[in-house]
């Protein structure tokens, strides 16, 4: 006989413990898979599965400002990289991925996502010529935002210093590829705007595929540049 005197769990405490363990083990996670079982009702979320050849993961993208473009990407058969948080849905003893960001996989999907976002932001007027500010003809203080280990650093310094030998160029290392790159670049631009000590900010990287360069097409970074 067991002498365990601990009080028994309830379904609610089990669900809470599972959710805590999911948060501890995974945190914010990115999952790549093929979309299936999409349901876009009139409710607050777009429900779908991410699957590979063996398993599927239930996922939900909550409808909120800025999610419309992502929602257009959730179609059966599309290959996506979804980033979010794993949550336990205790009412059904299920777990699901609460999606915060979606990135299409494959060049065709990427181009479609690019056109959707471009059309949305153009409608808001972000690309109007009247918003553009003239570049200084002889910048004295330049902020260079790029990867500290990339070839773009030396390429830029070689060209810039040949043309403007008196310019003071400050390197601000940022990620230029991957799930966190767009947010890191946007935050760096916001900091530079607050400081207000540079004549010019240059955001650059070397070449790469459309997928490698995708961080430069993300909405957060586009809005940071526009601001």
Question: What is the strand and helix layout of this fold?
Answer:
Blueprint: H1 11-26, E1 28-39, E2 45-51, E3 56-62, H2 68-73, E4 79-89, E5 94-104, H3 107-124, E6 141-146, H4 151-163, E7 168-173, H5 181-195, E8 200-203, H6 219-226
Parallel strand pairs: 3-5, 6-7, 6-8
Antiparallel strand pairs: 1-2, 1-4, 2-3, 4-5
Helix pairs in contact: 5-6
Strand content: 25-35%
What gyration radius follows from the Cα positions, in whole Å?
A: 23 Å
Helix content: 25-40%
Q: What is the arithmetic mean of pLDDT?
A: 87
Biggest sheet features: 5 strands, mixed, barrel
Order of helices and strands: HEEEHEEHEHEHEH
Strand order, main sheet: write it out: 1-2-3-5-4
- The total strand number stands at 8
How many helix segments?
6
Shape: elongated
- Structural class comes to alpha/beta
Terminal Cα span: 69 Å
| Spans of at least 5 consecutive residues with low confidence | none
